[in-house]
User: Which sequence fits this backbone?
């Protein structure tokens, strides 16, 4: 239902994976669509803290070019600091987020989206049946808003939506350590990424990781924010594990960055034609912190929801249809994982039990079939 008096049908804040896919689908369906992004996207643009691990299915689905991949992997090595180690098979690759996000935003542009970079949102107001959005460069009107501006979403803050509960936020620290490809392969194996667990002796609720890229090891650590006492000290404890110390010996620190991951839904994900997508809605796997595919799928589902509700003249059902569509596709499983997470991280025995099961089963299977 196009509104000729407004600048845009769909206005998207944030050109991460969620915003770009929402934009692409909206434009493909004939909606006049604009994305604003506070940074510049691409090689010369911003750095985004992320492990950058994505599954092979996603690479194939979006036809992600081989020359944009940093490194392929075939397994996730699971280390418990008490000494147990297991290996979980699973093909995927690591990517740099500036390159990946640029690829997705180019897809949106090709579909007809207008992308405005270096244009942060400053103000958003609801008028009768539309929104007025102000940036440092202009003012725009639109019917629908997609809030895909990440975990700290300015859009939702300005609209007065409630923030996440503390137990649903993970504080992460990332260090990008430059080191030669040969050494990475010697120390971490040719095709493995590594995750480290330990409730008593490493991280109460969360985990740490070594994700190799072409000539960099992404060293990451994440703990539930209200359990963090001294993040730098806790990160150091991880770096001092013999395996980790050996892996990063001789490497050069290039980037150090803290960031948050939401691991439970925001108290609401829809209101008055505004859809929270991806991290802004807390639509992330609560056990692994994987969020890229869920941001992309929730962006797509938000637009499909608009389209189907308009078609059936069910505009008062946008919120319930959005959540129902998300549930059907994957959110039901993420909600169950959120509950299971508390059980898994109860103590080291329950955690080790999960890691043993994880070696053989998908985490969704463990949770939905109640194997723990
Ligand atoms: C340390 C770390 C490691 C991770 N590792 C992985 C991993 O290996 N695999 C995985 O799948 N997921 C991983 N994640 C999660 C993943 O990064 C997120 O789930 C994903 O980026 C969410 O995408 P999004 O589009 O919702 O938000 P984002 O990627 O956060 O994008 C939001 C966009 O909005 C823009 N923006 C913000 N404010 C404004 C504003 N006011 N105006 C305009 N634009 C704005 C930002 O610049 C940004 O481009 C990790 C996260 C962290 C923190």
Assistant:
């Amino acid at each position: 239902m196009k509104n000729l008096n407004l600048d845009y049908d769909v206005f998207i804040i944030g050109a991460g994976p969620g915003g770009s896919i929402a934009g692409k689908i909206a434009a493909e369906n004939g909606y006049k669509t604009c994305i604003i992004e506070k940074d510049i996207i691409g090689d010369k643009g911003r750095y985004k803290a992320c492990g950058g691990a994505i599954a092979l299915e996603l690479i194939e689905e979006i036809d992600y070019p081989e020359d944009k991949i940093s490194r392929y992997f075939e397994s996730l090595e699971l280390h418990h600091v008490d000494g147990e180690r297991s290996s979980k098979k699973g093909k995927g690759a690591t990517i740099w987020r500036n390159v990946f996000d640029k690829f997705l935003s180019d897809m949106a542009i090709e579909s007809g989206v207008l992308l405005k970079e270096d244009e942060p949102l400053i103000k958003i107001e609801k008028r009768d049946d539309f929104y007025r959005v102000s940036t440092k460069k202009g003012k725009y009107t639109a019917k629908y808003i997609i809030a895909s501006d990440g975990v700290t979403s300015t859009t939702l803050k300005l609209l007065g939506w409630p923030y996440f509960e503390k137990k649903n936020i993970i504080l992460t620290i990332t260090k990008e350590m430059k080191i030669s490809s040969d050494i990475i392969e010697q120390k971490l194996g040719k095709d493995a990424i590594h995750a480290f667990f330990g409730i008593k002796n490493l991280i109460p609720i969360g985990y740490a990781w070594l994700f190799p890229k072409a000539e960099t090891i992404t060293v990451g650590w994440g703990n539930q924010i209200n359990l963090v006492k001294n993040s730098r000290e806790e990160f150091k404890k991880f770096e001092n594990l013999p395996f980790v110390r050996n892996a990063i010996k001789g490497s050069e620190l290039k980037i150090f960055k803290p960031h948050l991951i939401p691991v439970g839904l925001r108290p609401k994900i829809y209101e008055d034609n505004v859809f929270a997508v991806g991290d802004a809605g807390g639509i992330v796997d609560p056990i692994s912190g994987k969020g890229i595919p869920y941001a992309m799928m929730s962006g797509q589902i938000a637009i499909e929801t608009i389209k189907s509700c308009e078609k059936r003249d069910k505009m008062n059902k946008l919120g319930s249809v959005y959540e129902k569509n998300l549930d059907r596709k994957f959110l039901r499983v993420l909600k169950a994982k959120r509950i299971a997470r508390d059980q898994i991280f109860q103590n080291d025995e329950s955690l080790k039990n999960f890691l043993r099961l994880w070696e053989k089963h998908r985490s969704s299977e463990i949770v939905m079939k109640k194997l723990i």
User: Anything to note?
Assistant: The chain has a mean pLDDT of 97. DSSP finds eleven helices and 16 strands in the chain. The chain has two domains: 8-45+99-164+266-342, 53-94+167-262. The first strand starts at residue 8 and ends at 13.
